[in-house]
Specification:
It contains 8 helices and 2 strands. It is mostly helical. The protein has one domain. A hairpin with a 6-residue loop joins strand 1 and strand 2.
């Protein structure tokens, strides 16, 4: 009986069949919101990466035979990691829209000094931004957004195959342009609150002219804070349509990035 002989090409093909998709998936789980947060242990992300890889690999065509110690292998590692990280980063920007909107509103209503450490990112944000981030994260999970983005990750292997060219200049420009989109979307969310707080500040200006002996800073700060909290409370009634629109725009740009129909 002839012993089982495995050639070097077969071994490289078997390793690459699991290695190249795993790199893209690991980069995605590293940068995606909720799963990629610092509060999620690294072991959880590793287990999710391995589990997703085992499910995705049988649906993929045979992997190319590439030597793991070659320049081509290094380029494929960079290419696959960049695809996964770019997809996760774009989704991270979508949720950061509401964090930035919370920063704008907090600065306007005098809550800029009330900041706390965000456990998911490790940076200091205002309390209102943390509230918006927690709220949008729960909404994202409640509408099965995590399932949608994982499905888009699986679809990316069809539109951006392993041996493809990866992300081009247009795709990187799309990722960069999300910065301006984030500021514009956050400003659109906060414009009604800005207008209401502007009217409150204008009323204090009229009061200071009519009663110069009144200390506007002493009286105006608590009233502005109170009105700001009331306006934020009333604005929550229209928060879900805004969240749906921002999420749809973000997912549309993510589809444009991977070239999915």
């Amino acid at each position: 009986m002839n012993p089982l002989v495995i050639s070097d090409e077969q071994l490289m093909q078997f390793i690459g069949q699991y290695l190249w998709p795993m790199l893209r998936i690991s980069g995605f789980y590293f940068a995606v919101p909720v799963i990629g947060a610092r509060t999620v242990p690294a072991r959880i992300r590793i287990v999710l990466t391995l589990f997703t890889t085992l499910l995705v690999v049988p649906m993929l065509p045979p992997a190319p035979v590439v030597s793991l110690v070659s320049v081509e292998a290094m380029m494929m590692v960079v290419k696959e990691m960049m695809i996964g990280i770019s997809m996760g980063f774009m989704l991270q920007v979508v949720l950061q829209v509401f964090v930035l909107a919370g920063q704008f509103v907090a600065m306007k209503m005098g809550l800029g000094f009330a900041s706390m450490n965000d456990p998911s990112s490790g940076v200091s944000v205002t309390v209102l931004s943390q509230f918006y981030l927690t709220f949008t994260t729960l909404l994202f999970l409640s509408v099965n957004g995590h399932i949608v983005v994982i499905q888009m990750l699986v679809d990316s292997f069809a539109s951006l195959p392993i041996m493809g060219n990866g992300l081009g200049a247009d795709e990187f420009l799309l990722v960069i342009s999300m910065g301006s989109w984030m500021f514009g979307a956050a400003l659109v969310i906060t414009l009604p609150l800005f207008t209401a707080l502007l009217i409150v500040n204008m009323s204090f200006g009229v009061m200071s002219r009519s009663a110069p002996q009144m200390n506007v800073f002493t009286v105006g700060f608590p009233i502005t804070l109170l009105f700001g909290l009331l306006i934020v409370w009333f604005s929550l009634t229209n928060f879900l349509p805004i969240f749906d629109r921002i999420l749809d725009e973000g997912l549309a740009m993510l589809q444009a990035l991977i070239g999915a129909p």
